[in-house]
Specification:
Helices cover 35% and strands 18% of the residues. It contains eleven helices and 14 strands. The strands form three sheets. Strands 7-8-9-10-11-12-13-14 form an eight-stranded parallel barrel, surrounded by seven helices.
Length: 341
C-alpha cells in the first residue's frame, strides 16, 4: 500500500482519519490534491501493513482505490502524482508552460564581472542567474570559489536585476550560509549520491536542482531525488548535464532521450545543461534548441564576457552576444510545441 486514492466526495475529516490511521502504523502521509482526486502518498516501510489492514482501508467509504508502487522511487513517480509538479520561485514557475533559462558564469570570480553578466543575461531574457560560490574541481589546485564573498555578490546581482539565484552546495556544513542567500540549491553531478548531503537539503525549505551524476542511470538519479523528497522537501528539479561514455569528442554525452523518458516516469520538472553536456561553446546553441524540442522545462547555460580569461569552464561558456542568439533561436521552437520562453 503506497497510494490511497480518495473519491471526489472525500472530506477533510475523511483525510484526517486516514492520516491518523497511518500514523499509528508508524507511517507518514503526503497529501496531493489534484483537480479531480485527492491522493494520499504513504511514506515509510509499507511492508508492515498487513493484507487485512490494507483491505480495511479499502473499505473506508471515502476511499476509491489503494495501490502499490512497484518502482523503488515512490514520491518521485508519476504513479504517486500524475499532474506535473510546478515549482514557484519568486514568481518564476518551473514546470509550467514557460521554458525558463538559468544563465551566468560557472564561478563567481569578482563583483564587476558578476554584475556585468547579470545585466546581460537579464536583458537577453534569462529567468534565473547562476554562479558558483563553492566550486568542486578535479584538481585541488584549481580555483575553488569565493565562498560567502561570492554568495554576497550573487545576492547583490539579484537585488540589481530581480533574477532569482541558483548556486551549488557541496558540504552540509555550508548549508545554513547558502540558505541565507540562494533561491535554489544546486547539487552537482559529483554529489548526486552524497546521501548525507541529499538528506540535509531534504530538510530545507528551498527548491533543489539535482544534477545527474557522471555515470548515473535514470533509476539511480530518481532514487537520489527520492532521498531529498523522503525528508519532506518535494521541490526537486532534475538537471540532465551529460553522462560519461566512451566518446571523447565532447566533454560528456548529453542524453536528451532522458527528457521525454523522465516526463513519463516522474512528475518533477526537468532542466537541461547543454554547456556541461558538450563542453564546447559552439555546440551549446544547437543542443539547447534540441533540449527545448525534446520537452525540457528549462535550460542552464554558462555565460562569460571573456571566456579566454575564465577561471573555470571557459571553453564551454557563451559570450553575451551568443547567449542572446541562443534566446532568439529557442523561442520559435518553444512556440512550435505550445510553450514560451
Amino acid at each position: 500500500m503506497d497510494i490511497i486514492v480518495l473519491k471526489p466526495t472525500a472530506t477533510e475529516t475523511d483525510i484526517e482519519q486516514i492520516v491518523e490511521r497511518l500514523k499509528k502504523k508508524g507511517l507518514k502521509a503526503h497529501i496531493s490534491k489534484g483537480t479531480e482526486r485527492t491522493i494520499i502518498g504513504v511514506i515509510g516501510d509499507t511492508s508492515r501493513v498487513s493484507e487485512d489492514e490494507e483491505n480495511a482501508i479499502r473499505a473506508i467509504e471515502a476511499v476509491e482505490s489503494v495501490m502499490r508502487i512497484i518502482k523503488p522511487y515512490k514520491l518521485a513517480s508519476r504513479e504517486f502524482k500524475r499532474e506535473p509538479t510546478i515549482i514557484n520561485i519568486r514568481g518564476k514557475k518551473i514546470g509550467s508552460e514557460r521554458v525558463h533559462v538559468i544563465a551566468g558564469p560557472c564561478a563567481v570570480e569578482n563583483r564587476e564581472l558578476m554584475l556585468q553578466v547579470a545585466d546581460a543575461v537579464k536583458e537577453a531574457g534569462a529567468s534565473f542567474l547562476r554562479g558558483g560560490a563553492f566550486k568542486p574541481r578535479t584538481s585541488p589546485y584549481s580555483f575553488q570559489g569565493l565562498g560567502e564573498g561570492g554568495l554576497k555578490i550573487l545576492a547583490e546581482a539579484r537585488e540589481r536585476t530581480g533574477l532569482p539565484i541558483v548556486t551549488e552546495l557541496m558540504d552540509p556544513r555550508d548549508l545554513e550560509i547558502v540558505l541565507q542567500y540562494t533561491d535554489v540549491i544546486q547539487i552537482g553531478a559529483r554529489n548526486m549520491q552524497n546521501f548525507r548531503l541529499l538528506m540535509e537539503v531534504g530538510q530545507a525549505d528551498k527548491p533543489v536542482l539535482l544534477k545527474r551524476g557522471l555515470s548515473a542511470t535514470i533509476k539511480e538519479w530518481l532514487m537520489a531525488a527520492e532521498y531529498i523528497m523522503s525528508k519532506g522537501n518535494h521541490q526537486v528539479i532534475l538537471c540532465e548535464r551529460g553522462i560519461r561514455t566512451f566518446e571523447t569528442a565532447t566533454r560528456n554525452t548529453l542524453d536528451l532521450s532522458a527528457v521525454p523518458l523522465l516526463k513519463q516516469l516522474t512528475h518533477l520538472p526537468v532542466v537541461v545543461d547543454p554547456s556541461h553536456g558538450v563542453g564546447k561553446w559552439d555546440l551549446v546553441i544547437p543542443m539547447a534548441r534540441a533540449a527545448v524540442a525534446a520537452g525540457a522545462d528549462g535550460l542552464m547555460v554558462e555565460v562569460h564576457p571573456r571566456p579566454e580569461e575564465a577561471l573555470s569552464d571557459g571553453e564551454q561558456s557563451l559570450r553575451p552576444d551568443a547567449f542572446r542568439r541562443l534566446m532568439e533561436e529557442i523561442r520559435p521552437i518553444a512556440e512550435a510545441i505550445g510553450r514560451s520562453v
